[in-house]
Structures are given as structure tokens and as C-alpha cells.
Amino acid sequence: MARTDAVVLGAGIVGTSVALHLAKRGLSVAMLDLRAPGEETSYGNAGVIEGETVFPPTFPPGLVNLLRVGLKQATEANYHLAFLPKVAPWLFQFWLQASPENQLAFAKAMRPLFSRAVAEHEALMTESGALQYLRKNGWAKIYRSHTTFNRMMPELNLADELGIPYRMLTPREMLKLEPALKPNFQRALFWPGAASLSNPLAVTKAYAARYQALGGVTLIGDARTLHRNGSAWRVDTAQGPLDTQNVVMALGPWAPDVLKPLGIDLPLGIKRGYHRHFKLAGSVPMTRPVVDPDVGYCVTPMEQGIRVTTGAEFAERDAAPTPVQFDRLMPRALEVYPLGEQVQEPTWLGKRPCFWDSRPVIGPAPGQKAMWLAYGHAHWGLTLGAVTGRLVADLVTGATPFCDPAPYAAERFL
């Protein structure tokens, strides 16, 4: 019977980072998934490491915007009508989080993770030989009206208090950063502390390769086979049963499939999202991600092409794709971005695992000895992957955590 010190369930950017950090501490580690590292939700993100994040996304402000979403005319959100009764309690709690008090609580709770996000990734990329994918030239957000720009003032005031740098830009100043854009917007914000990746999948695979070089094992298997075997945990793999002292749950949107049978039912929601790649129109390149908050999408230069990612879709996790947001947003995107023809490949669909307070759960599993949770990272799975790996490794090995893990504890929902 094979045995390890720890099994990490899930081989996305979070699980792979956790496995790598545990292997760096000298533990024998196995990482289990049904697919190769990085090939699910971790593949399709906007590639941004958002170390400067202050407030989380919230409901679109104002009755008009809510009506646009309700009437399925919005670019930033979509939903499946039959799914609304099921997700309504979660959406109500998410709506409550838009209050100034809750926004401030999020900012203070998450700052220890966000402030270390870029440095922790850069350290892992350095030892994994993946620095060629890292861009440390920030990202920008454009605003099509002064009204939407002015809504940023509370966030910018808090950024000033926290010492997070940013620059307010006119369209002319923004075009000096990204000359390929068209000046069909009123203002812009440049956040120099952010970083981005030209190929998130390649970075996850580089972390996995480094983990394997340290003696870590990557296995194919179904995490739903997890069960107690005496004082140990046991999971079935393609190579046979595997016993472990510790198990780390890093399955993202699939975590409830394993946790609910064990009596752990936390309020996880799913924000589905899509991306497509486009060729660049013209000869002037794009050099960093740019977000259009008024329309609700991000444009990022990737090795595969110019990636356009959508906002949120509320639907059953495994429902068939419905990428209607592209039909709504592409005419608006072409007003600003130099997008050419679409790269011939299927539209990608991913599932962002989100708790309604927009914080992940990181720490011990309630009522389950030697089980550790690391999921629910919402829009920041890539951003927080490396720093989550470090925090989980501190907790599993009994080291002093680099920050207080209490704000991320599962008990806040119980």
C-alpha cells in the first residue's frame, strides 16, 4: 500500500502551488486529478496577478443596470433562467457584500494575500524556469464615462491609505501606454503593481515539473473516492489505493462533490466565464491586460493570441456552454481594441468558484482531522495560487503562518 505525507486533490494553479510548497518543505506529496495540471479553470483566466486589488466585484450599480441584466441585455453578466431559484440565496448574500462596510472588511482581510501575490509567483517562476512568461508592466482599466470613473473614488481613497500605487490617465496618456487602442473612452486607471502572464497554462505546468523534480508524484484519479481508512485518508488512483496522513482540498468548483458527503457544505457559488482568442489587427502590439469595466470584459495579449474574457454567467456548473455575452460585447470591444479575426478554436468555458464574501477558504476543514481546504478563490485563482500554497504549507507543517489565517477560515460560514 502506497503512503504519503500529503495528497493534494486538484491540479489547477492553486493545487499545483500547494503541492510544490509542500514538496519544498520536504514532505512526500502526491497530487491527484482527472486531468493534467492546469487544464481546467486555471487555463482560461485573463492571466493577471492582481496584487493591487482593493475591492471585489459587486452587483452592477443602479436600477437600469440591474434591469439590463434581468432582461439579458447586459454584456457583463448572463444567467440561465431555470437556475435562478437555486442561486437566489447566494446572490442575495453577494448583493449584501456591496455595502461600504463589507467592502472595507474584504480589503483589509485580503491585503496580506494580495500584497504578496506577485512576489510569491515570481519566486516560484524563478525556480521553475518560467520567468519568460512574466510581465511586470501593470494593467489598466478604461472608463467610458466620467460617472463610472468617479465611482472608483472610494476604492482609490483606500488605495492611497494602503499605499497601493495607481495613476489616473487621460485618453491621450493611456494611448502612450497602449498605442494600439482607440481613444473611445473618457478616463483610465493604470495599476503598475499588477503583473500578468503570457501563458498561464505553461506556468502551471512549469510549477508541476518543478514539484516532480523535488520528488512529488502526479497521479490520475477521482477525488470522490476519498474516504477514511483508520487514522489515515485513502483515495483510489489509476496506480492503486493511496493512503496519506494529510489531504488538501484544492478542487475549486468541484470541491463540494467531495466535501458534501463528508458533512461539509459551504456556500460556494459558481461564476462561469468564457474566452476567445483573436488575431491582432494592425502592426502595433498590445503589451498588457486592459479591462473595460463599463462593458465587463478583459483583453489580454497571450501567446495564443489576444484573449478576450467575459464577465460572469450564473448557471449550473456542468450545463452546456452559452457564450452569448460575446455577441453583446464584441461590437463594443471593437470600438476600443484592435481585434482582428477570431482564432479557429472552440470557445473556452471555465468555472470560477466563489463564496459570497469573495474570500477563499484556506485552513482546516471543520470536523475532519488532517483535512485542509484551499478553494473558492473567485476571480483570483491565478493571483492567489502561489501565496495560498505558502500559507497551506505553513499550516500543514505546523510552521508559524506568514499571516493570520482567521479571515479565510471555513468557520465564518457555520
Question: What does this molecule look like?
Answer:
This protein has helices at 13-24, 63-70, 84-96, 100-128, 146-150, 153-162, 171-177, 200-213, 255-259, 325-333, 381-397; strands spanning 2-9, 29-33, 48-49, 77-79, 134-135, 139-143, 167-169, 187-191, 195-197, 217-220, 227-229, 232-237, 240-249, 268-280, 290-292, 297-302, 305-310, 312-314, 339-342, 348-355, 361-364, 371-375. Helix content is 31%, strand content 27%. The protein has 414 residues and is α/β, with parallel strands linked by helices. The two termini are 36 Å apart. The radius of gyration is 21 Å and the shape is globular. Helix 1 runs parallel beside helix 11.
Largest sheet: 9 strands, mixed
Tertiary shape: globular
Give the distance, in angstroms, between the N- and C-terminal Cα atoms. Answer: 36 Å
Oligomer: single chain
Tally of DSSP helical segments: 11
| Structure summary, number of beta strands | 22
Please tell me how large the radius of gyration is: 21 Å
Derived structural class: alpha/beta
Mind sketching the topology for me?
Layout lengths: L1 E8 L3 H12 L4 E5 L14 E2 L13 H8 L6 E3 L4 H13 L3 H29 L5 E2 L3 E5 L2 H5 L2 H10 L4 E3 L1 H7 L9 E5 L3 E3 L2 H14 L3 E4 L6 E3 L2 E6 L2 E10 L5 H5 L8 E13 L9 E3 L4 E6 L2 E6 L1 E3 L10 H9 L5 E4 L5 E8 L5 E4 L6 E5 L5 H17 L17
Parallel strand pairs: 1-2, 1-13, 2-10, 4-18, 6-15, 13-22
Antiparallel strand pairs: 3-9, 5-9, 6-8, 7-8, 11-12, 12-13, 14-17, 14-19, 14-20, 15-16, 16-17, 21-22
Structure keywords:
11 helices; alpha/beta; nine-stranded mixed beta sheet; 414 residues
